[in-house]
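Annex B, item 7. Sequence and structure tokens for protein A, then protein B.
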Amino acid sequence: MSKAKELSPAYFGLVMATGIIAIAAHQQQWPSAFFYIALLAWGVTFIGLCRSLLRLRQQK
């Protein structure tokens, strides 16, 4: 079984939550570390989605 299939939908929630925190931190003029954490989480989720779509395409 592919690891992409085993990913929990909670990863999407992680991306959304870190994005919201990053926006709030930016508005409060806090350090931009939250933005980079959100960007990293988005990237990991996007790569997982791409891998899942590629495997689905190969199965057809």
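Protein B:
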Amino acid sequence: MQNALVQGIIAAKEETEATGVQGNIGFSAVPDHFGPVVPDFWERIFQLGGRVFVESLDYVGYKFYTEVFEETIDLKDILASIEYVLRCFRGKNLKDCPHTRIGSYTDS
């Protein structure tokens, strides 16, 4: 599954560049701050694609499905919860991938 994602992203980026079509290339994931659904997902996709994969990405989005993958969040806690999840995503998934040093590609 991860190989199809990686190859699809790279192929889509190559096609948009070859044809001059405007569009952002990327994918969305579900937050895994309560434990990964697919162990080593982030490390594997970046190992498979390396720098070419990372440079082909215009975005990586996170889909929030409240009450599906986590407990109900009080309205007053939504902003803090979103900030926490995104900080974990950037700090853990994107920066701490030991096999790829993905953080060097994402620092802004």
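Comment on protein B: Strands lie at 26-29, 59-62.
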